[in-house]
Fold each of these.
Amino acid sequence: MNRLNPLRPSSFFGGLSLLLLGHLLLQLIASFTLPLSYDEGLNLLVRRFMQLGYEPYQEVPTVAWPLFTGWLNLLNDIPIGGLRLLFLPFSLLLLFSTGLLARDLAGSPAALAAVFLLATAPTFLSEAGLILDVVPGLSLALLAGLLAQRSAAGGRVYWLLFSGLLWGGSLLGSIQTLAVAPLILMLLVSSPAPQPRRWLAAGLWLAAAVAALILGYSLAGPAIKAMLARQQMLHQNLAVDLVLNFRVIGQFLGFNLWLTLLAMIGLAYLVDQPRHRLWLVAIWGLLSFAWLMVQLSPRLIDAASLLPPLAIIGGWGLGQVGQQLQRLLGPVRWGPSGLLWSGLVIVFLGVNWTRFNAYYLREVDNQDSLTQLEAQPALAEFIDQNTPAEECVIIDDPALAVLADRLPLPQLAGLSSQWLAGGLLTDRELAQMIAEGGCRAIVFSNRDYHLSFAEAFNSWIITNYPHQRVFLRTRIYQQ
């Protein structure tokens, strides 16, 4: 194994603090400028119904796990802008935990490079501070991994037990943290401690994690049962589309181009060092990839579970590339070598900026779509002015529903094409629910799932909601 290249602790933590501060400033800007996303709208609709006394899972369907919905319920009086600010510490915690874990496994320079790559990854910049469950869950899971790594090195049993409890809590917040458990167990059984103590540590950690899950199930058993039953029905009626899942992951890797390339370079250098502990991170990344591949329609945000392992290996790979370039170009100083180094940094930032824009505009296919994305407040005002307040309004974009302060029927809060294809709801049942619920309007914005409706249902809408208003491809059908 290669020898780690340490920095003085003050230099490392000084560099880490600067990276965290820079990321915080970028996220503060993003929190107040990025439009409300579709998935954020789903979570906020669930929170709104919980404020009205409805039970999530039983009365309001959601794919979010109980710890996340419970936390949203606790924050029910906080406006959207303030709520986004409360999600920022989780992204900082994920950067911090990733950096310290990378430092333990690959040294200080690689750790700082890993934090830099993660902090500047386009998808992380776009979604780290949004009201979503994956980044908070990953931040807690990575902190659990860091505590387990430190407990194995220092024999701190209470850190070990707390790590197991923390990981169990992270899984109750986001199912995407599942693949972190094998990493933690591998860190424990491969630690420098005597072999009996390694297995004892792994057993204690596993017992604490199971205890956390049992406690969570005892507190939220009905909710978990309802959610798992819904997932089981989907799996019975839908097959896992490996091609589609691979396309989502490929798209994610393409958006994070530098992270992907540097992780591949890091793996290439690792081939010559079979005993390097970074292989544990590579296995973790492979398990995260496998877990995404067996899911039904994973979202791009779900692929964020790949970010920490890619960043750690990519940070180490960046260090290797930096050493090679330093031999070729010389150290950074004024003159030709300084210009070359500056040019490389400009290329890095330029490509990252184009990838960030590509991610932000990933659903834009023409000028109308771009106008619609930029005019989200105007669309919400259009809906607010042309639909009755305090009445049921079916809107296919939950973000617009939240901004316009319009609610659908509770049981239709997460309506999607997956529901229809998976047998959770038929067109006939949907029409009956809308009629019995007394919904006064139906709004179709720029979403494709309504295209999966049968022709009979579309005819039913036109017959029963004959009055139409249109603004920027958003169509309101009224009685």
Amino acid sequence: MAASMLYMYSEFNSVDQLPEPGYVKMIWWAGISVFLVLQATLLLLNINDRIKMSCLITLVGLFALDVIGFKSINLQIICLSFLIMNSESVSFKKFIKVDFVTRLVCIALVLMMFFCGIFPSQYDVYVPRGDTIRSSLGFNHPNSFGGYCLYILISFLLFFYSTGRLQNLKKISNFFWFLLMFITGFFIEFVYADSRSSQVTFILMVLLIIPLVFNKNIKSFKPLLGIFILLIMTLTSVMVVFYYNQFSTFFVKLNDLTSNRLFLQNEAFKVFGFNLFNVSDFAQGNPIWVDNQYVYNLISTGIIGSLIYTYIYAKSFVNAHKADCYILYIVLIALIFKGSFESTLIDYYALLPIICSFFMVNKISMKQ
């Protein structure tokens, strides 16, 4: 995540498709190489069945195919799979603490580089919306800034939950922390970044967290609720884009409401199509932006990759229910709606909720 902050989400990665500086690419490949070596080593040290060994061989093979230029399941899903398989080896409390601190250090680094003028001037991003200018504060787009800050809030919520403070909500200090978090989130998402997808997610999270103020022992919902919402959103997104008609009044209005997203996604379907695996030359933003996670999965990873992602996300609801973690469950639901506006649910900074669900359920299994 730290390496990807410079390579993918900072102003070193221009939305105008300017080439990244060579040293930034070196940092990224060094970071991803270290990550994969450490994850593979940890998995080897803890392999206790043939299934894990088969998964390790498969993941290494898919990564090798990706490196030499053959299309396979994308790198984000490979990294996510490694983290899930190694979730038995790491303490949830330690992981979420390190994750939260790392996110704060990363954003502090980007902000420092932005205000000190370290980013090349031609990479500066100022996105107009009406009469206002949306600044990205060192990120490659205001949506990246809004999305990253949203996940800092999610990391804080899970860190807050892991400390056990949730059981002491009557204390004024805990109300202060929640209030500070929501004020900060509102200012970033609605005033500064003006990221619509993050705004929708933030509002849903706030509305669903409010009940905890009155009942701190709310039970997690059944897994079927989250899985049903995920499937409905996935199928609706794909079908609406697939049957988009630029001459239909309904679709034209819907396309306007989504800032031309439907038209672009439909064009991506026509140009690149989809198959069992990713066999096309599709690359995000080159030349088409696909701002819908479920459509993006189908085009970029094929039917197989899309099904794998859907299964992993559905499994996260099962895990959140087993761990009886209401906060994680509502975060997962809120993010489903974010996926309808952006294809950022498997970004390297966005893997946290899925991974945490496996940490939590593994912790319960070890206790038993």
